[in-house]
Amino acid sequence: MVLSLQVIADKIQGELKGPDRRFKGIFTTLGNAGEGDIVIRHWIDDNGVKMALEKGVCAIITANPRGGALRVAGDSGFPIILVDRIEVANAFALKWTIGKFAPETRRLVVTGTNGKSTTTHMIYHILKVSGREVYTNTDSKSEFNTLIDPVVPAQIAEESREKEFEYLVIEVSEVQGWLGRMMEDHAYLMTRAIDPEIVVITNVALDHIGLVNSIDEAFWEVSGAVRAMNGGFAVLNCEDERVRSMAGLNKKVEVFFYGDDSQISCQEDGVYVGDRLFIEGDSLPFKSKHFIQNTLAAIAACICLKLPLDDIKAGVLSYKPLKRRFSIIHESPLIIDDFAHNPDGIKATVESAAAMKRRLWIVCAIRGSRGKEINIANARALAKTIKDIQYNLIVTDSDDVVDDLNIVKDDERQVFLEVLKEYGIEYTHLNKLEDALIEALNRAAEDDIILLIGAQGMDPASKLLEKILKEGDQC
What we know:
It is built from 16 helices and 24 strands.
């Protein structure tokens, strides 16, 4: 399948600047590009164009040529395709790549506000341990689920040269933006490009405040994945009212519910498939409510794929979580690390830790450079969840470990702490993550729980703890 640059420009509503060429490579990033490839970048400057020329790149697609980018490209006879919406270009790259390198694959999309990474990874694991050849874009930091860069198309193209994928299990961010602009219909665009036979929706909640400003907007963006389907199964969380209502959005698809009173449910003694006890509760690798919901979603998706129940059960029982998904990183005291970065995630994670009936220490990283709104919402969720339980709270800016993109600004810190005071929550605030971890370790007893929650500001915690504990052993 060979395309010309003009054909590509027409398909992505772009304008070709420079000569038309035949495209024989893959869509990829500038750093990984080779001869004949097309690079997709949100912005490019004259140095980027020069680098592309040195690499023998076929063309660059961008929404923002900076500095002398167009002049250098023009002088060198190098083609640039200008677009208004870079996400349209990335959706085209994804669709073209699947069509060329993985056309016979069975494809699944997982999206929602919380739990999509764990659900995606568990489906991947079930397929993998049952002997299937499968690709997923989910990793511990969820770096590739945005699909706003051509990393996933490049990975599929490159890995397909060495193996023939049977399944693609692709996590799609429910809401996406760039420089404060929401990329409208992100889930719809990417799901339409993937053309999956199964879409899993985990839940609908507010996370990307500032990009979406109401739960109705969040619902519309998440539901785009169901609306984009051409057939197959929509696997829906019936415990979430908004997700449940998606059942009537697309008459082309069958609906498969999971959760309470559905085809796949969790009762006191374990997970049920219909009326049959499928996995006993004591055998489940995780007992927390949000992990059980993710497990039910993965089981439901695999049943829709018509996988043997024995394969599904073996995959669930052998599953190990992604990093920072309620991960136990120390035993005494019990230290649990979780990527709780929005109100629903904070509530679910704290409730799961509190249910373990031990004295609870919480170290919470404020979200840096994400605005006041999300920090108000996070602080409110934390305050409401802990106000009626026994807790010890340490809040940190993590300014000793975060990069320039994640620095906690003064107004973000101020609003977070003001909400805690408003709810009468006692806390200790420390600027450095290392100091916050040392404070928790020094004050916690061996049978206590230390819960680490937060996004980028808490990511380095496990390595810091390793260093702190090692130094403590040497004293």
